[in-house]
């Protein structure tokens, strides 16, 4: 589709021009940087960590890393670590011996072995258990493991690409993710920005999906009404490219002419009401209400003759504030400290002081 760029004049490369990656749509500055990093890292054997919300294109980048590498002729094996229970995932990844557990009626080769000579994509790596993380660390470090229920060590040559839709450092802090594995994976992190931070990609993506779905549905929707494009560009896309793709498909299916019109879009997009990004709504504070409520409570409870009203009410407000921010940040202290604008050690002390550290 984009032709072969391997023979492109050197001058283009020296000008810093990055040819797009076949199949990936969007030429915003942010995505150009993603493509650039993807190309550069693909040639190495380093582990790659893809970070970004759901639907931003992590899996597409993972497969591009493989296709652009010297391993392209080898297998590309995908495993969604979030989709299986711990024991199933362990035997899926590493294989097992007959009789290793109830139901293990025969020997089974794991996905790591299947990925020998190629790449393995570990999606939602953040949902692996700490026990499995130890085994993963060993594969990353020593390139070896044993099948479940076996003592024989197997060596593999595979490049690991992992993805997480959560901030892994937060997970490390919450003690759900091993720090040593984090650093092993984090050799080359690639952060793929959410669609709302690169709205300039929306028209290209819409045109692309219109083409794709016109073809699969034998339609010919080639025009986009201006009002429809404006609505699409204003939406916040919590489900990112996947959400956009679904809505364009739906519009093509419903279209009765060759134009994508605004009435073909779901109401939440049409009305232009912006939804907060997923997981952010709990963090919105109404400072005035919060303060008034807590001050009122502090005043009500305080002994009318007490002469320490200031410190009592201020402490009370502070405690409530910290408790709420900690909750909004899922207990992750660095995040809460940043949000509060206070030092992490200070936060730590205050959590102790207010008995909020449990
Ligand atoms: N830059 C892009 N160009 C074209 N299609 C994309 C792009 N990014 C994402 N998609 C499409 O959006 C959907 C979600 O992408 P995926 O790679 O599965 O995201 P993630 O793994 O981050 O959830 C897929 O159907 C994919 O084809
Ligand atoms: Mg995915």
TrEMBL record:
<dbReference type="InterPro" id="IPR025662">
    <property type="entry name" value="Sigma_54_int_dom_ATP-bd_1"/>
</dbReference>
<dbReference type="Pfam" id="PF00158">
    <property type="entry name" value="Sigma54_activat"/>
</dbReference>
<dbReference type="GO" id="GO:0006355">
    <property type="term" value="P:regulation of DNA-templated transcription"/>
</dbReference>
<dbReference type="InterPro" id="IPR009057">
    <property type="entry name" value="Homeodomain-like_sf"/>
</dbReference>
<dbReference type="InterPro" id="IPR025943">
    <property type="entry name" value="Sigma_54_int_dom_ATP-bd_2"/>
</dbReference>
<dbReference type="GO" id="GO:0043565">
    <property type="term" value="F:sequence-specific DNA binding"/>
</dbReference>
<feature type="domain" description="Sigma-54 factor interaction">
    <location>
        <begin position="24"/>
        <end position="253"/>
    </location>
</feature>
<dbReference type="InterPro" id="IPR027417">
    <property type="entry name" value="P-loop_NTPase"/>
</dbReference>
<keyword id="KW-0804">Transcription</keyword>
<dbReference type="InterPro" id="IPR025944">
    <property type="entry name" value="Sigma_54_int_dom_CS"/>
</dbReference>
<dbReference type="InterPro" id="IPR003593">
    <property type="entry name" value="AAA+_ATPase"/>
</dbReference>
<keyword id="KW-0010">Activator</keyword>
<keyword id="KW-0238">DNA-binding</keyword>
<keyword id="KW-0547">Nucleotide-binding</keyword>
<keyword id="KW-0067">ATP-binding</keyword>
<dbReference type="InterPro" id="IPR002197">
    <property type="entry name" value="HTH_Fis"/>
</dbReference>
<dbReference type="Pfam" id="PF25601">
    <property type="entry name" value="AAA_lid_14"/>
</dbReference>
<dbReference type="GO" id="GO:0005524">
    <property type="term" value="F:ATP binding"/>
</dbReference>
<dbReference type="InterPro" id="IPR002078">
    <property type="entry name" value="Sigma_54_int"/>
</dbReference>
<dbReference type="InterPro" id="IPR058031">
    <property type="entry name" value="AAA_lid_NorR"/>
</dbReference>
<dbReference type="Pfam" id="PF02954">
    <property type="entry name" value="HTH_8"/>
</dbReference>
<keyword id="KW-0805">Transcription regulation</keyword>
<protein>
    <submittedName>
        <fullName>Nitrogen fixation protein VnfA</fullName>
    </submittedName>
</protein>
């Amino acid at each position: 589709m984009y032709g072969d760029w391997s023979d492109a004049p050197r001058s283009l490369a020296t000008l810093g021009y990055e040819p797009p990656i076949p199949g990936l749509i969007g030429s915003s500055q942010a995505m150009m940087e993603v493509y650039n990093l993807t190309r550069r890292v693909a040639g190495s054997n380093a582990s790659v960590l893809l970070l970004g919300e759901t639907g931003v294109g992590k899996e597409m980048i993972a497969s591009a890393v493989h296709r652009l590498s010297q391993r392209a002729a080898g297998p590309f094996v995908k495993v969604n670590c979030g989709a299986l229970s711990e024991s199933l995932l362990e035997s899926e990844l590493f294989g097992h011996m007959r009789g290793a557990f109830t139901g293990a009626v025969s020997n089974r080769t794991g996905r790591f072995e299947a990925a020998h000579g190629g790449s393995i994509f570990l999606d939602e790596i953040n949902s692996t258990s700490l026990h499995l993380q130890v085994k993963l660390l060993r594969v990353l470090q020593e390139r070896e493991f044993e099948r479940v229920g076996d003592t024989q060590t197997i060596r593999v040559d595979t490049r690991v690409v992992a993805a997480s839709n959560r901030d892994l450092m937060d997970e490390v802090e919450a003690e759900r993710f091993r720090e040593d594995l984090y650093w092993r994976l984090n050799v080359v992190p690639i952060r793929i920005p959410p669609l709302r931070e690169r709205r300039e990609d929306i028209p290209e993506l819409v045109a692309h999906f219109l083409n794709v779905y016109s073809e699969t549905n034998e339609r010919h929707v080639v025009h986009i009404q201006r009002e429809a494009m404006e609505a699409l560009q204003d939406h916040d896309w919590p489900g990112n490219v996947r959400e956009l793709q679904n809505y364009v498909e739906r519009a093509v299916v419903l279209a009765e002419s060759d134009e994508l019109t605004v009435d073909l879009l779901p109401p939440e997009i049409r009305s232009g009401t912006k939804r907060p990004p997923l997981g952010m709504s709990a963090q919105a504070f109404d400072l005035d209400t919060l303060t008034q409520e807590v001050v009122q409570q502090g005043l009500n409870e305080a002994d009318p003759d007490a002469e320490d009203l200031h410190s009592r009410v201020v402490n009370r407000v502070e405690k409530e504030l910290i408790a709420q921010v900690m909750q909004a940040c899922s207990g992750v202290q660095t995040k809460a400290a940043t949000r509060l604008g206070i030092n992490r050690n200070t936060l730590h002390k205050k959590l102790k002081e207010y008995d909020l550290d449990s």
